[in-house]
Amino acid sequence: MKTKIAIACDDVGFERKEDIRKYLEQEKGAEVVYDPVKTQADGVNNFARLADEMAEFIQKDGCRLGIYICGTGIGFTCQVNKHWGIRAVAVTNPYSARRARLSNNAQIIGLGCRVNDLEYTKMIVDEWFDNPFDFATARENSKKNLLEAEKSDNALLVKPDHIAWNMGFRPDA
User: Fold this and answer.
1) Does 70 participate in catalysis according to the annotation?
2) In which domain, by residue range, is 40 found?
3) Residue 68, φ and ψ in degrees, nearest 5
4) Which of 130, 112, 85, 83 is nearest to 9 (CA)?
5) Strands of the sheet with 108-112, listed across from one edge
6) Is residue 77 part of a domain?
7) Would residue 163 count as lying in a domain?
8) Can you tell me the distance from the alpha carbon of 163 to that of 59, in angstroms, rounded to the nearest whole number?
9) Torsional class of 172: left (φ above 0), alpha (ψ -120 to 50), beta (otherwise)
10) Partner of 72 at 20 to 30 A CA spacing, among 8, 90, 112, 150?
């Protein structure tokens, strides 16, 4: 079964998004199920709206992973992390991408086309995409931290009624 993934970008990251989309589909065997930015103009001044849309898409279990590409990946991840259950990290190197997934079960990564070239970006995507969080083998500290993150989300954020899965805080039933 193909891994479903969301991808979006601003106008600056449009060309890189197109390259990464092709890479995900052709080399990683992923199915891109959310890609609202069809032209470079679609990405102008839309990171906040796109973050909100991608968060809701993931919360509704349209997919469980997402990538956003802009100049740095920072603004989008700041916005998307405001949503209950979402863990997003702007990453600039393969090791951080791997740890974002293995330690924090991060569903979304933000990538900067002004930070890394295409080939290095592919290495970052590989480390995040190819190393899924596994509750059976994850460090106990990572699993405890996910439960604490859920408690924090419950205390600080409103859990939407449309949440359709456990958001990776615990193993699927």
Assistant:
1) yes
2) 4-156
3) -125, 135
4) 112
5) 31-34, 4-9, 66-70, 108-112, 88-90
6) yes
7) no
8) 5
9) beta
10) 150
Residue tagged 């086309």 (tokens):
113
Q: Which residues pair with 112 in a beta bridge?
A: 70
| pLDDT tens column, 4-60 | 999 999 999 999 999 999 999 999 999 999 999 999 999 999 999 999 999 999 999
Token pair 């994850």 is at which residue? 138
- Number of domains making up the chain: 1
Eight-class DSSP state of 34: E
- The answer to the question of residue 167 being in a domain is no
Report the CATH number at residue 105: 3.40.1400.10
Catalytic residue (choose from 9, 63, 70, 113): 70
CA distance 152 to 161: 18
CB 66 within 8 A of CB 41: no
Residue 120 lies in a domain: yes
pTM exceeds 0.70 for this model: yes
Token pair belonging to 135: 């509750």
Model confidence pLDDT, tens digit, residues 151-165: 999 999 999 999 999
Between the CA of residue 3 and those of 12, 62, 88, what are the distances in Å? 26, 11, 18
